[in-house]
Inverse folding.
């Protein structure tokens, strides 16, 4: 489990194929910030852009670690198939503060940036969510975008899903990779866990 509070910006420095065809995944090498790996052990869970991965090797001297990502996970996520920046969060410990919201690290779908522009001292980020996720998005509800816990400010329903708006304060832009987003870029989305349970309970047959 995670909270959606990013604790470091890393970078995928290498994405090496684990086989010769599309059924094989990749081994990712991630450069982490200094000190990020000091309390990490083999087998620990670290979320990369909101996708929970298992540490298969790490080196505290070089500040690098590796994860293996399956072809299925690559198909269901964005931003993990090639070198580039990634938001990092280590798994939640029982005594940690829950500063964001409860996040599972399981990407529910892929959204896309429709608008990203400054508004006063902050930035407005608008994203398109697919139809399958639109029903889970609500005004003042929680959403995870590339692993970052955020609050929805506006939702507009569309024929193919919805467009929702988020306000990003300078602190979020400085401490996550969201500041580098571009219009049209794909992002990982995880909807609120409570919303998923409510949808299931309301839709389950009685008897």
């Amino acid at each position: 489990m995670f909270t959606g509070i990013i604790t470091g910006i890393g970078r995928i420095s290498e994405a090496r194929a684990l086989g010769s065809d599309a059924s094989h995944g990749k081994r990712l090498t991630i450069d982490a910030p200094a000190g990020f790996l000091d309390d990490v052990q083999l087998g620990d869970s670290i979320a990369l852009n909101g996708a929970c991965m298992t540490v298969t090797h790490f080196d505290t001297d070089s500040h690098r670690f590796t994860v293996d990502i399956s072809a299925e996970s690559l198909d269901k996520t964005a931003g993990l198939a090639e070198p580039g920046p990634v938001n990092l969060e280590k798994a939640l410990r029982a005594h940690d503060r829950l500063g964001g919201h409860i996040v599972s690290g399981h990407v529910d779908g892929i959204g896309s940036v429709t608008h990203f522009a400054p508004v006063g001292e902050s930035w407005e980020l608008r994203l398109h969510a697919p139809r399958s996720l639109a029903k889970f998005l609500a005004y003042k509800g929680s959403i995870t975008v590339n692993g970052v816990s955020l609050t929805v400010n506006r939702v507009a329903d569309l024929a193919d899903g919805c467009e929702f708006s988020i306000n990003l304060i300078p602190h979020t832009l400085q401490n996550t990779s969201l500041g580098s987003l571009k219009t049209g870029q794909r992002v990982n989305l995880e909807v609120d866990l409570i919303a998923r349970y409510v949808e299931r309970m309301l839709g389950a047959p009685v008897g």
